[in-house]
Amino acid sequence: MPEGAPYWMLWEELVSGGAHWSGLLRRGTTLRLMDVTGRGNAAVLLYNYEDRSERYNLPDTLKAQHTAFLSKGTVCYSDMGRILCSITDDTCGWHDTLCGLSNADQVRRKYGTARYQEHRNAYFKNGYDSALNELGKYGLGKRDLTAAINFFSKVTVEADGSLRFHVGHSRADAYVDLRFEMNVLVVLSSCQHPLDPASEYRPGELRLTAWHSRPAPRNDPCRMRCPENERGFRNTEVWFR
Amino acid sequence: MMPLVESALDPDFAVRREVVAAGEPWMGHVQRGQYFRIVDLHGNQAVDTLFYRADTLEERYSAQDTIREQGNIYLSSGSVLLSNECNPMLSIVADTCGRHDTLGGACSAESNTVRYALEKRDMHSCRDNFLLALARWGARHGRDFSKRDLASNINFFMNVPVTPQGKLTFADGISAAGRYVEMRAEMDVTVLISNCPQLNNPCNAYNPTPVEVLIWDVGPASR
Hints:
The complex is a heterodimer.
Chain A: E1 9-15, E2 20-25, E3 29-35, E4 42-48, H1 58-65, E5 69-70, E6 75-77, E7 83-90, E8 95-96, H2 104-111, H3 116-119, H4 127-136, E9 149-151, E10 155-157, E11 163-165, E12 174-180, E13 184-189, E14 206-212, H5 227-239
Antiparallel strand pairs in A: 1-14, 2-13, 3-12, 3-14, 4-9, 4-13, 5-8, 6-7, 7-12, 10-11
Chain B: E1 16-20, E2 25-30, E3 35-40, E4 47-53, H1 63-70, E5 80-82, E6 88-95, H2 109-115, H3 126-141, E7 154-156, E8 179-185, E9 189-195, E10 211-216
């Protein structure tokens, strides 16, 4: 039972490094993503489970909160002005919204080739193929592959617009808690961040823990962060009336 | 800001030349090797733009892939606009503005309720332009476009700076009357534009105005 979990635990799962995962997280539940090794990256895609044409919208998330990254107190917006989930706790401080998924070419260039035939289940995976794998289970495909969030990775923007990846940003047992405000299909890949300069293919494992929490109360810090979020929560509540 | 790069192409030799009125959509084909220019006729007008591979619904412009592969969030001359399969779609070959945005996305009725006020729902928005243009184009060209095909777009002539601390703002424009951006198509593309009708932030200097689109065939006669 994670510390601070006010209600009861639902389930816990270990996702090995480089693996892909998907699941339904219902309104009023919290999912804790934990970076077990300190070199983990959780690439995450979010969809409204009931109408999958509604999904995480990167620009609307950034614009509403005047931020280029996610951290405790921020929320993830859908393209319909609703809030898919809120970040209620976070020991990492910065999660990358800009860089998207790794892909097969990029993994091959960086780490070389490791096929299933020679390496069995240690074969090299990538974020793009992993996402397609999971999306296909729900009747979704390439057209539905939208922006990904890279939890546990920090990429900042220099004055000239160039990107800087921060090595060693996360640490072992760092976690981020996502409280779901809607019924959300979560698609996840634990492949390395595409800008991770490590020369070795060595993705870190993640621990997922889900528990009943409750929808955001009136004085919720994510809700009170800015008037935009207050309106986003209002739009979300109308969906469930 | 990137150094400004001018084009040698003469508008008199363009094979297509159209003015897009303020707040209107525009959709068209640009063939591989053709040059495509957007002119900010009156200055500080955001032009929300999406690109699709002409023969499939599955491949389209990807902001995250473009940003990551060029290692920079701003678009200017030298930028290669990548698809969701990391294939080059268009290259920016000339730019007299210096910086274009691909993080700010498009306005919609729903995001207007969040960003400004619940009563702003009925204001005209880029997504309404996008959806209507896709529906009409799809019916005419036998392509089943829908909202799931609206990925994050480019905002030509719009200024959305990000600080090293991670703050993102909509700043006053850096464009001016007559500035333009020009691209060479690296594959056959379908272009979808919404000439942004947003009145609630400085992206259009609170006064949306017309823009012009031009297409050239390659060849010495165009120069």
